[in-house]
Amino acid sequence: MIDNQIRDTLVNRMATHRIDLERLVTIPSISARGFDHDEVRRCADAVRDLLAARGCNEARLLDVAGSHPAVYAEWLGAGDDRPTVLCYAHYDVQPPGDPELWTSPAFEPTERDGRLFGRGAADDKAGIMVHVAAVDAWLSTYERLPVNVKLIVEGEEETGSEHLEGLLEAHGDLLRADVVIITDSMNWKVGTPALTHSLRGLVDCVIEVRALDHPLHSGMYGGPVPDPLTGMIKILAGMTGDDGAVAVPGLADDLPVPHDRSDVERLEFDVDRFRAEAGMLDGVELIGHADSHVLERLWYRPAISIIALDATPVDTASNTLAAAARAKVSARLAPGQDPRRALRVLVEWLEAQAPWGLHVTVTPGAAGAGYYGDPDGPAMKAARRALQAAYGAEPVLIGVGGSIPLIEPLTRAFGDIPALLTGVEDPDTRAHGIDESLHLDDWERACLAEAHLFAELADLS
Question: Cβ of 98: how many Cβ atoms within 10 Å?
């Protein structure tokens, strides 16, 4: 446990940490294609400079061909007899969507009702600052940490960590550690911390359906000439059954051994609150296997969605058959499923569904594995004690339906080291959505929890 001096240092410096967080939020570090990638590198430079200013050594950028840079820093003065902890976060963010829908501009951090609003305010620039605040509290108080610490802040997590293997091949020895702390998850609710022990995997692809070499008048040709958008809809509609569950043959054939349902049944889950948090309209039904708990569908089962569609915009449409249509398909995988196999199954199935002889081209995208960690391991118990001390509440063990592609290959590369997934998000955060926000009091508790966690992990040595 930390002493009062470290706690006081951290609390007294939270105003400074907030200034640093807001500076990061103002940088539109969107890693997706089609956005200004100079801003992504500018954010990487800002994170590197921040880590150096807060006492880390060797703060620098790690470049991998074709990738946005990762930021690396370290403090290794605890000694060879103490464990080495790798702290992970990411500085890239999702596109903001329609700027007119934001209550305040996405890249102008604004406080309302104890929450800081802005794209990346929670996911995951606040996660970066959790690591910074914990390191800073120890170094500012005692000029040393109780464990050796390495930090890796990724720049393409929001686009599937496409160049992760290249990063590990080039810099794996540099990142080697005994345990990894990943501050990119969520809490059960405000004031109640959570430790995430499972994540779903992710695969995606882009499908193009082409019928013509040029657009056609729909009245002069419609009827005998097929419409590629209608063909696309027929293909995509077959991905799910009437209940909304995945219907692509073979996609769920390698589901792992069923988990213990008591894992979710013991949680205080309110389905009405879940619907409200999701913003579901009256009468809209929950989908998926009806015999499964909602949390099972969210954490432990595959799901498939259409997350983008390229076609003629309604406002500019004429009576014309488009020559082609495109869509992006995203599938979440149960922990333990093979993402490369799933992507192959999905691509081959989509290619085989072409109606009317339409030309279908499927371009594979990301393929990241899920994760499942032992909730009763020593490091996990240390994390629970740290969260309890900081929040004053018993932490909850949860799964998360999202994906962090780095975890599985990273932990495997270093001998199946434990991964501790903590976070600053809560059910009202709206990560990836309009009006993303950070609960500021919970953020401070998350910073305190990591300072505690360094001490807890030192005791495990």
Answer: 9
Distances (CA, A) of 152 to 125, 132, 198, 405: 13, 12, 21, 14
Global pTM? 0.85
* Two structure tokens written together for 56: 């880390």
**417: its two tokens:** 């080291």
Residue 34, phi-psi category: left (phi > 0), alpha (psi -120 to 50), beta (remainder): left
The DSSP bridge pattern shows strands 84-90 and 148-154 to be parallel
Q: Indicate the residue type of 156.
A: E
Structure token digits, residue 240: 């799910």
User: What tokens does 293 get?
Assistant: 């708990």
pLDDT given for residue 101 in this prediction: 97
Residue with structure tokens 């333990």? Answer: 336
The token pair at 160 is 């599937």
Residue with the two structure tokens 């393409």: 156
Per-residue pLDDT tens over the stretch 250-283? 999 998 866 667 778 888 899 999 999 888 999 9
Cα(45)–Cα(410) distance, rounded to whole angstroms? Answer: 24
Phi, then psi, of 400 in degrees rounded to 5: -135, 140
- Based on its alpha-carbon atoms, the radius of gyration of the chain, rounded to whole angstroms, reads 23
Tell me the C-alpha distance between 59 and 71, whole Å: 7
244: confidence class by pLDDT, cuts 50, 70, 90: very high
Q: Measured between alpha carbons, how far is 68 from 386 in angstroms, rounded to an integer?
A: 33
Whole-angstrom CA distances from 342 to 249, 302, 337, 348, 351 are: 11, 10, 8, 10, 14
Catalytic residue annotation: 92, 157
Collapsing DSSP to helix, strand or coil, 246 comes out as strand
Q: Characterise 165 by phi-psi region: left (phi > 0), alpha (psi -120 to 50), beta (else).
A: alpha
